[in-house]
């Protein structure tokens, strides 16, 4: 499906380059693995077993420039429905980040932005876990959009905030 030098998004690792496909032995079992180098964490190496559909479902091609522009043009998006139970919300957000579908990540970010605004209005902040999910989602999605458009993730953030506020 993928080949060496393909640029992919893998779960919460973000944008990665497939540096090799090799047979390796982990846990006493031999299997073929995609060997990934995260673009933003070059010192890390990620091994993705080619025979594990659940793990492979977290890997996809990076969006195209056209897809990135369409995502930005679709802003603002309808936020995800707020889940009041902290554990359920964390599980839902973790799943959104692992699957990494850009439109769902945008909806999650929108939901967290809305909650952040509500909390600030009453002199409060987001829960620490919600803040972490927001930062992870922004990092993942804005890095990918920036990569597709050839701009920095901070420039993507500026575009997103401008569109949300208008």
Summarize the SSE layout with pairings:
Blueprint: E1 7-10, E2 14-26, E3 29-38, E4 46-49, H1 53-56, E5 59-61, H2 65-73, H3 86-99, H4 102-121, H5 128-149, H6 153-165
Antiparallel strand pairs: 1-2, 1-5, 2-3, 3-4
Question: What can you tell me about this protein's structure?
Answer:
It is a single chain. This protein has 166 residues and is of the alpha+beta class. The chain folds into two domains: 7-61, Thrombin, subunit H, CATH 2.40.10; 65-165, Methane Monooxygenase Hydroxylase, Chain G, domain 1. 49% of the residues lie in helices and 20% in strands. The protein has six helices and five strands. Strands 4-3-2-1-5 form a five-stranded antiparallel β-sheet. A hairpin with a 2-residue loop joins strand 2 and strand 3 (29-38). Helix 4 packs across helix 5 (128-149). The model has no long low-confidence stretch (mean pLDDT 93).
Major β-sheet strand ordering = 4-3-2-1-5
The shape, in one word, is globular
What distance separates the N and C termini? Answer: 41 Å
The whole-number mean of residue pLDDT values reads 93
Unreliably modeled segments: none
CATH topology of the largest domain: Methane Monooxygenase Hydroxylase, Chain G, domain 1
Strand content: 15-25%
Largest sheet data: 5 strands, antiparallel
